[in-house]
Amino acid sequence: MVKMPLDFSKCNVYFDFDNTMTHFDVLDDIIEKFSINRDWVVFENAWQKGEIGSRECLKWQMRSVRATKPKLSRYLDKVRLDDNFQGLFAFLKHKGAETAILSDSFSFFIERILRNNGAHGIKLYSNRLRFSKNKLIPTFPHTDRSCSHCANCKKMHISKLGRRGRTNIYIGDGLSDICPAEHSDIVFAKGSLQEHFTRTKKEFIPFNNLGDVYRWLEEAGNVDETEGGQELSAVKRK
Length: 238
Ligand SMILES: [Mg+2]
Hints:
Layout: E1 11-15, H1 26-34, H2 39-48, H3 54-61, H4 69-76, H5 85-94, E2 98-106, H6 107-116, E3 123-132, E4 135-139, H7 154-161, E5 167-172, H8 178-182, E6 186-189, H9 191-199, E7 205-206, H10 210-221, H11 228-236
Parallel strand pairs: 1-2, 1-5, 2-3, 5-6, 6-7
Antiparallel strand pairs: 3-4
Helix pairs in contact: 2-3, 5-10
């Protein structure tokens, strides 16, 4: 049960990256644009059906990608963050919330996009890459050995960062967000995460962009304490 108004100094806010902080799935786009064959499609389909985990999927998919660091950098330099991110991040920081990006993509992509868009000071937990000429070699420093579903175990970060007594707030859109969202107290969902939460009849707040999230959180911080619960569901139905 989340207590209203939200005390942000006791909140951890987790952002998925692709299609949550950006307007499209950058990793999927890179795989599609820079692969030398269509072998990646088989793995993508198997992952969508839950037949393989994302670590297995990404390991095989990255084998088809060919791009030098400068070529990929030029591509990444065109990617824009959601315009609302900076305002939301400044608000959360000002209110004393802890924030982190949890992504099943790669730090090289994300860090460059963040830097280009002037987004500094947010923690990032993601997979890693190194270049061998035009080949991209992935490594997965945050796997959970007991579960093969994800490459970067987002739930593990929430368990470590979201200590007892903290309110975990999750913002995401995809299949890799289901598990961490199910271990969070407040969930903002779109895309397949929204479909999953609708199908399984779990509570969530739908969003289209981070401006929606910002508005909801701002209101949740100002809810009248005496009618907190009521007010929260009213906001949720928007
Ligand atoms: Mg995503």
